[in-house]
Design goal:
There is one protein chain. By secondary structure, the protein is mainly β. It contains one helix and five strands; from the N terminus they run βββαββ. The chain has a five-stranded mixed beta sheet with strand order 3-2-1-5-4. Strand 4 and strand 5 form a beta hairpin.
Length: 89
Amino acid sequence: PAIPPTTITMHSEFRVADLDTGEEQRYTLVFPGETSSAHGSLSIFAPLGAALLGRQQGEVVECAAPGGITRVRVLSIVYQPEAVGDYLR
């Protein structure tokens, strides 16, 4: 079965809202070595990155991070490679 376009996969670009602060962030989920804070990269090895993989738009995700518990809502999927047939990225 195809992956729904509302699912976070590797190299997906998405928006989340921090449920405690209301702050919105835009990230791209990447492999280690591809991270760049200037470009909003989030490593799959980071606690939040691992927690977001496979999650759907609208879901609330909670994870333990070095600074405490992080709770975010997935607002939207801006880009998902599978949705546009970009499997080589």
